[in-house]
Every structure is written in structure tokens, then in C-alpha cells.
Amino acid sequence: MGFEKIIFYVFSALLIASAGMVITVRNPVKAALFLVLAFFACAVVWLLMEAEFLAIVLVLVYVGAVMVLFLFVVMMLDINIERMRAGFIRYLPLGVVVALGMAGMLIWIVSGDGSAFDHSVLRDASYSNTQELGRVLYTDYVYAFEIAAVILLVAIIAAITLTLRRRPNTKHQKIEEQIAVKRRDRVRMVKMKTEERK
Fold it and tell me: In the chain, how many domains are there?
């Protein structure tokens, strides 16, 4: 067994273990950190498959931006652990069925001779998978790419709208009033008699 296969199996096992910890750990912050570890392990597996651009995008976009946002939201929200655990038990049978179906499909694919799924082609050093990905993305899948962009735009607008809505019991700062205040508006001098000692 070569060195690349050893790295592949090590990081694949790390990916499976960390993905399992994401859904089984009780603390949501730890679950988000295990998801970061799963993204890193997946990026290493993609590097071994010579998909460098996708690995770098996974690290920069998901680990660098999306997971920071997830951690911020999870730490700002007051999550009820008991309710979340009840939901986990409620959907456990469906999750087991889906996991068994995916495991069966993976075993079926891996146990075959591999001729139907082997599309690997040896490329020379001048081949750029980033250029090939861009060509396929903006020619064959341009409509799907544009639909995904519109969905992301709608999600951004919805997030901004939810952030800016006014709740009835929330106190908001008025910066212009705080800046325009004078000393005489806030401080009142009161003259009092001094205390006399007996």
C-alpha cells in the first residue's frame, strides 16, 4: 500500500468520525467545531483526488466564512438542548434508514469491478482543473448556476430583513441622540447643606 493510500484512509476515517460527532455530540459549539474538522479532512481527500481548486474553496469559503457565521449564530442563540435531543430521537428511525441506504449504495459501488465508474484520465502537468471546472460550470450548467445565485441572493435579502425587523420589547440605541447630548441635559448641579458634626 502506497503512502497516498495511507493518507487517504486516515483522512477518510477522520472525516467519517468527525461527521458522526457532528450529529451525536450534545454541545452545539463542539458540533460546529467537529464540522470544521470534517471540512478540513474532506479538503485533504479532494487534494489527493487532484481537485485542488475545490479543496481550497472548501477551506476558504466554508471553514473561513460559513463556519464562523455558524459559530456566531450558535453562540448568540439560546438553544434548548432538551428540545433538540427530543427532535433527534424523533427523527432517528428515518436517519437510520437513510444511512443504511447510503451505506448500501457505497458498498454496491465499491464492491463492483469499477469499470462502469472509472472515468479517470491521466493528464499532463499543463492541465488546469480550475479552467475545466469553469468551462463546464459556465457552459453545461449555466442555468443551474444562475438559479443557485438567485436563491443565495434571496437568502441574503431574507437574512437582512430578519435582522432589521423591529420587535416590540427590544430597546434600540439612537446614535444621533447620544452624540447630540450636552452636559446640561444629563448633569444637574444640586446645592446641599454640609453636614454638621455634633
Answer: 3
Q: CA torsion sign, 187 to 191 to 197 to 198?
A: negative
pLDDT digits (tens, 9 = 90+) for 148-182: 999 999 988 988 887 776 667 767 777 888 788 88
Residues 12 and 50 in one domain: yes
For residue 66, give the 3-state DSSP assignment.
Answer: helix
For 103-118, give one letter per residue: b (16+ CB within 10 A) or e.
Answer: eeeeeeeeeeeeeeee
SS3 170: coil
Q: Which of 53, 25, 59 is nearest to 40 (CA)?
A: 59
Domain range spanning residue 88?
A: 80-112
93 shares its domain with 73: no
